[in-house]
Design a protein that fits this description.
Elements lengths: L6 E6 L7 E5 L5 E3 H15 L10 E4 L14 E4 H41 L14
Antiparallel strand pairs: 1-2, 2-3, 4-5
Length: about 130
């Protein structure tokens, strides 16, 4: 369904770990979390085009599986721009975390190499004159 205005949270899946599921109230089609992520990515790509740069298509997200979204107090209106901003922040955070992870792995490899070279060196007592044998 291409009408992003009618997508609502529709509970969670029973898999481990549980994933949110979504439903289009227009066509009653259900979407799992990865499919929803692809839809949002498509919407992000569409809004990045110059002709649609100022488009503000509201998405309504419901916090429960209530059949009447107006009666739900958790219902809020989220725009594509809000989602785009959140996606960019999360992407930046992901890149930062990946960089930190890469640095940590490099440090671990360096420590392992240092430890291996220390273990392979025979023990030499360079201070024999300071500590004579018993």
């Amino acid at each position: 369904c291409q009408t992003m205005n009618f997508l609502y949270r529709s509970g969670t899946s029973s898999c481990d770990p549980p994933q949110p599921s979504f439903i289009c109230k227009c066509c009653n089609k259900s979407y799992n979390a990865p499919t929803m992520a692809n839809l949002l990515q498509s919407a992000l790509t569409i809004t990045e085009t110059p002709s649609d740069a100022n488009a503000q298509n509201p998405l309504e997200i419901s916090g429960s599986s209530s059949s009447n979204p107006e009666s739900n107090d958790l219902t809020s209106s989220v725009t594509i721009a809000d989602l785009q901003s959140t996606i960019k922040k999360l992407y930046a955070e992901l890149k930062q975390t990946q960089a930190e992870l890469k640095q940590a792995r490099e440090e671990i490899q360096a420590l392992r190499a240092q430890h291996a070279s220390t273990d392979s060196k025979p023990y030499t007592n360079s201070n024999d004159s300071q500590f004579p044998p018993l």
